[in-house]
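[Discussion] Sanity-checking designs against the backbone

I'm trying to build intuition for which residues belong where. Below is a structure token string of 199 positions. I'd appreciate it if someone posts a full sequence so I can compare it with mine line by line.
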């Protein structure tokens, strides 16, 4: 069995900075957010099911998913949200498992902002939390995305509280300094993961 590392952290914590570093080291990274988009691309089974369940209005004229219309719809109805998740979550999980299995590197990473929230950590052997204060999260995310502080605060509020993630994670890197500081921490962990992967 391949060693699978689950990498998580709240918005703006530095997950992408960390996963980019591992990728530069030749480690395959499967990104749950990317998979979530892939499974609703034209021609995918999940998109067909969404259309059959909700109706033609969920598609644009070219057959692609009208994300905005669907988002507004599920925003109005918890039931609709659950129905949608019953279609997408199993498809996302299946695709993640497939991509993790196919990965050709000493170990493989699953990066997900909602690793614990969606039980995706069950697909991993070990978890790493990239951690930062809420202040830093807001500062970094607002500089990156041009989102308002209010929007970022809402996203933080919808994610699992930081303290709970700290409890659940096997390793924690506090990303409160320069990027070089983050990379130095990751270097040490990478050595450990390589050893575990060989065991
Ligand atoms: P996440 O993927 O967790 O939302 P990112 O890795 O995209 O967060 O980081 C958010 C922003 O902050 C990015 O622009 C990133 O380059 C920057 N960043 C991350 N860590 C640091 C750091 N230690 N020092 C300075 N900037 C950082």
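Best answer:
Here's mine. Compare freely.
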């Amino acid at each position: 069995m391949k060693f699978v590392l689950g990498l998580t952290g709240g918005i703006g914590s530095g997950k992408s900075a960390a996963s980019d570093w591992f990728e530069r080291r030749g480690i395959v990274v499967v990104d749950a957010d990317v998979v979530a988009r892939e499974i609703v691309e034209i021609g995918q089974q999940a998109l067909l099911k969404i259309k059959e369940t909700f109706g033609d209005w969920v598609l644009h004229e070219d057959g692609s998913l009208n994300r905005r219309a669907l988002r507004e719809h599920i925003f109005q109805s918890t039931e609709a949200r659950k129905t949608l998740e019953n279609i997408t979550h199993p498809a996302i999980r299946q695709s993640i498992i497939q991509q993790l299995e196919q990965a050709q590197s000493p170990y493989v990473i699953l990066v997900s902002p909602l690793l614990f929230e969606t039980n995706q950590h069950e697909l991993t052997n070990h978890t790493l939390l990239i951690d930062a204060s809420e202040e830093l999260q807001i500062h970094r995310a607002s500089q990156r995305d041009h989102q308002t502080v209010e929007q970022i605060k809402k996203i933080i509020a919808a994610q699992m509280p930081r303290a709970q993630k700290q409890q659940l994670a096997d390793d924690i890197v506090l990303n409160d300094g320069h990027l070089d500081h983050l990379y130095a921490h990751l270097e040490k962990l990478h050595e450990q993961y390589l050893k575990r992967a060989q065991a």
